[in-house]
Amino acid sequence: MKKQIDETPVTEEGFALRLRPRQSQPVTVHIPTDTLAVLKKIASGRDMSVEALLKLYIGKSMQQELAKLSADRVLEKTEQVLKQHIRSEETVSTILKEIRLEAVP
To answer: Is residue 94 a contact partner of residue 88, using CB atoms and an 8 Å limit?
Structure first.
């Protein structure tokens, strides 16, 4: 974050961050000493606390997992629809393989 205007945090790009307070609960996590040292270095370089960095990492990982779950659900529904309209299991399988190959970044 770059600066604050009227107590509103602003990113380096100049976007105001509107943070909503959410309930939280403390959690104890044992992290290897060398890993913690690296986390502290990264956090310092980003001008943030280790706690904020961990929250960032957790949030990003959760977004990736949720996106994967969503994509899996779409593929499951796609398979169901294809099976309703196409009698050949082999054709359905081929189509799904092609979709998966195209969807991989």
So the answer is: no
